[in-house]
Amino acid sequence: MKVAVLGGGICGLYLAQKLAKAGHKVEVFEQKTFIGKQCCSGLFSERLFDFLPESRELVENRINRCLIHFPKKTLSLAFRKKFYVIEHAKLDQMAARLAQKNTATITLGKKIDQTALENLMTRFDKVIGCDGALSVARKHLGLKESGYSLGIQVFSEKSNKSDLVETWPTENGFIWKIPRGESQEYGIMENPERARKIFDEFLEKNNLPATDLRSALIPTNFSLPSNERITLCGDASGLTKPWSGGGVVWGLKSADILLKNFPNFLQYKMEAERFFNLEISAASAAKKTLYWLGYNAPYVLPTNYSIDGDYLFKWTQQSQNI
Q1: Which of 77, 124, 131, 242 could form a disulfide with 4 if both were Cys (CB 3.0 to 4.6 A apart)?
Q2: Average pLDDT, the chain
Q3: Quick check: 215 and 257 in contact, CB under 8 A?
Q4: What is the rounded average pLDDT of the residues 219-231?
Q5: Containing H/E element for 315?
């Protein structure tokens, strides 16, 4: 089949690699003139290596646990699956090389608007929208617009090779500190109207330099269309973890479900929703409960936890192994 993939991010490039390897004629359309996401913390669990084993060579640091600093109590989370710091742009560039190695075509500097999308629908058998938080494909399909958080990050040249991430909850998100090996990063995920003000106050209070500031929208509200010609994957579908805003491992899992069911987009929709919807709902409720207790009744919370940083709930982990 002739397949158009909108967006040269990690999900689009992964799909392009796998579909081209399976013998389909795949073209990726990326509106930027280069490959590589510029704003992302690049903190991925070891599950990333199940999808892209080549990414092991890109590791900058390993993370074993996370501290959550509430005003009157700090919680320590040990990760059952280790996390690794990888520069997202390098991960995308590696995925692009793999896609091209498998004969996929990547067209850069090609902005796809509604008119261009309609034209692609006449030229390709299938269209997959991996075009990010402001997806043109999602709008074309008439799906409800995603909700958004705003992610902002800054960097310090100070070397930090610890295995510990620190976070400070905010009203609708959190501030983070990530050791990147040869540098360290601070960032925030919050309501777009309030994120910059809260972050600036945090940086000033802690006398931290705001250098190399970057920002990006983080979508929410997972949704897939009932359409056999065009579908969505990754950020375009609003698929991000409710507690962290991370979307790469979930996006790649969604991509694998799509590949398993290709070219049946309706079957992909059913299986992906069955896999993710319960996890999203339960994780959202768990985050709200944790935040309420952390601020209002911290004494009831144990200090130490062990968690799976990708799938918080047992039934999703079980379904993944089936």
Answers
A1: 124
A2: 93
A3: no
A4: 96
A5: helix 314-321
Helices (H) and strands (E) in the chain, counts: 9, 14
φ, ψ of residue 160 in degrees (nearest 5) = -150, 105
Q: What percent of the chain has pLDDT over 90?
A: 86
Q: Stretch 167-192: mean pLDDT, rounded?
A: 94
User: Residue holding tokens 């805003």?
Assistant: 245
Kindly compute the dihedral angle of the four CA atoms of residues 240, 260, 85, 215, in this order, to the nearest 10 degrees.
-40
Distance CA 72, CA 155 (A): 28
* Coil/strand/helix, residue 201: helix
Tokens standing for 295?
A: 């601020």
Are 93 and 75 contacting, i.e. CB atoms less than 8 angstroms apart? no
Is residue 28 scored above 50 in pLDDT? yes
308: left (phi over 0), alpha (psi -120 to 50) or beta: beta
Please enumerate in sequence order all residues whose Cβ is within 8 A of that of 36, keeping only pairs 6 or more positions apart, or say none. 88, 89, 90, 92, 93
CB count within 10 Å of CB 286 equals 14
| DSSP codes joined into one string, 108-119 | ES----HHHHHH
CA distance 137 to 15: 16
Q: How confident is the model at residue 148 (pLDDT cuts 50, 70, 90)?
A: very high
| Range 246-256 average pLDDT | 96
Kindly write down the DSSP assignment for every residue of 240-304, as one continuous string.
--TTT---HHHHHHHHHHHHHHTT-HHHHHHHHHHHHHHHHHHHHHHHHHHHHHHHH-GGGS-SE
Residue 319: per-residue pLDDT? 42
Distance CA 30, CA 131 (A): 8
Structure tokens at 134: 């402001």
Distance between the two ends of the chain, CA-based, in angstroms?
29
Helical (H) or strand (E) element with 168: strand 164-169
- Per-residue tokens: 51: 């999808």
- Residue 169 token pair: 């909850």
Pairing outcome for strands 174-179 and 184-190 = antiparallel
